[in-house]
Amino acid sequence: MELLTKKVKGAEDILPADSHKWQFVEELMRDEAEKSGFREIRTPVFEHTVLFNRSVGETTDVVQKEMYTFNTKGGESITLRPEGTAGAARAYLEHAIYNDGLPVKVYYQLTCYRYEKAQAGRQREFHQFGMETYGSADARADAEMICAANGIFDRLGVEDIRLEINSIGCKTCRADYTAALKEYFSANKDELCDTCLSRLERNPMRILDCKNESCKKVAAKAPVVLDYICGDCSAHFEKVKTFLDAADVEYTVNPTIVRGLDYYTRTVFEFVTDSIGAQGTVCGGGRYDGLIEELGGQPTPALGFAMGIERLLLVMKAQNVELPEAPTCDIYIAALGEAAEVKAFKLAQQLRQSSISAEIDIVGRGLRAQMKYANKINAKYSVVIGDDDIKNGSVKVKDMKTGETFDALLDDFVDIFADKFIEYGLGAVSELIGEDSDKLGQALLGSLPHGN
């Protein structure tokens, strides 16, 4: 068989065998955000190109090299979003969400698009989880944001991940630092790549983020931003560290962190691991107090982070972090004969309405093939319904794990089976947790019928 086409390079399919892992991680992220008062925002996958040029920065690699930009039939320049903050900030302004009261706290789960070399942990279509706060200049907002990201890693059981923080100052105090960088890099411009030479006059801080080996060597000896930040920015940074200390969140100060987008100010941070090689930054964020004003709004302090889900799952796999098993069928109902098929269909619908996962044959298999399929999908229970069973009003239900059977009246089938399934689930819980009562609540919830 010759396929008409295959997936586009840099994009990946998330198959049914893996989708439950994504759902588990995404649900945990949503829960962590909502515990701190954040609410979901959903923005379009494409925006006017000018939005990213202004917010992300025309001197960044994202804008210069990586954006998917095209003209519509009406002649408008449109870009697939390369990150989530610009769209969220645009929505904040366009819909005047600030009228609901400050701070505005939002989170999102979305796909992003960047044209770059596809490799493990770096795709052209990728998924991000992000959190953002608008309207707070307080250091507690910085610490709250960092703690939320840290909480996700803790709850997932991710280890060997380090938090690195820095302050890159405000627009005012950074002018002195920019001048120092310009002087330093001008003296070493023979060693800079062509892209960094173009950045030298417009935004020399971007050179610090260049991946070219020659530029990296030069940047390693460049002036350090913490030596140039003003008193207010320094005091803010110290307060951030105080609140992180109070929350027992470990961190190191890394004065080389500048982040790759132009809108950052003051606090910047990254969660980094060595578990997956070069693409080790799993989460990054910081303040962008000038972004809303840059987009036409009133001066508004803001901050946030984004976490790459593909990269996070790679880290979890490399560290053998245990994830829940894929959900399986609670009961498979095999049928022999037309009347039995109708009865099986009716029972399956009733079970599903009671939040119990039930499957029946929908491809015309014989009994033997139906039972093989029940085994293949790891059904917890199975039952065979034939004409005699309908006349007698009773069937035998088989526990697929133990091989044991029990009788169930068809008229009371849903109630009887629901009770038996909960009993099955509690048995699985006791095997799972043993005498560890701390795990009881979580395990019990996982054992109950679907939807409860």
List the helices and strands and how they pair.
Layout: H1 16-35, E1 39-40, E2 46-48, H2 49-55, H3 61-66, E3 69-71, E4 77-80, H4 85-94, E5 104-113, E6 125-134, H5 139-156, E7 161-167, H6 174-186, H7 194-202, H8 213-219, H9 231-246, E8 252-253, E9 265-273, E10 281-287, H10 291-294, E11 302-308, H11 309-318, E12 331-335, H12 338-353, E13 358-360, H13 367-376, E14 381-385, H14 387-392, E15 394-399, E16 405-409, H15 413-433, H16 440-447
Parallel strand pairs: 1-5, 7-8, 12-13, 12-14
Antiparallel strand pairs: 2-4, 3-4, 5-6, 6-11, 7-9, 9-10, 10-11, 14-15, 15-16
Helix pairs in contact: 1-5, 5-9, 15-16
Quick structural gist:
This protein is an alpha+beta fold and 452 residues long. Helix content is 40%, strand content 19%. Strands 1-5-6-11-10-9-7-8 form an eight-stranded mixed β-sheet.
Could you explain the architecture of this structure?
By secondary structure, this protein is of the alpha+beta class. The protein contains 16 helices and 16 strands. The strands form three sheets. It has an eight-stranded mixed beta sheet with strand order 1-5-6-11-10-9-7-8. α5 runs parallel beside α9 (231-246). The chain is elongated, with a radius of gyration of 28 Å. Residues 426-452 have low confidence and may be disordered.
Please tell me the overall pLDDT.
89
In terms of structural class, how would the helical and strand content be classed? alpha+beta
Major pleated sheet: 8 strands, mixed
Helix coverage percent of residues? 40-55%
Task: Please state how the strands of the largest beta sheet are arranged side by side.
Answer: 1-5-6-11-10-9-7-8
What is the percentage of strand-forming residues? Answer: 15-25%
- Total helical segments: 16
Indicate the low-confidence ranges by residue numbers: 426-452
Question: What is the total tally of β strands?
Answer: 16
Question: Any idea what the shape is?
Answer: elongated
Supply Rg: 28 Å
The end-to-end distance, rounded to whole angstroms, is 43 Å
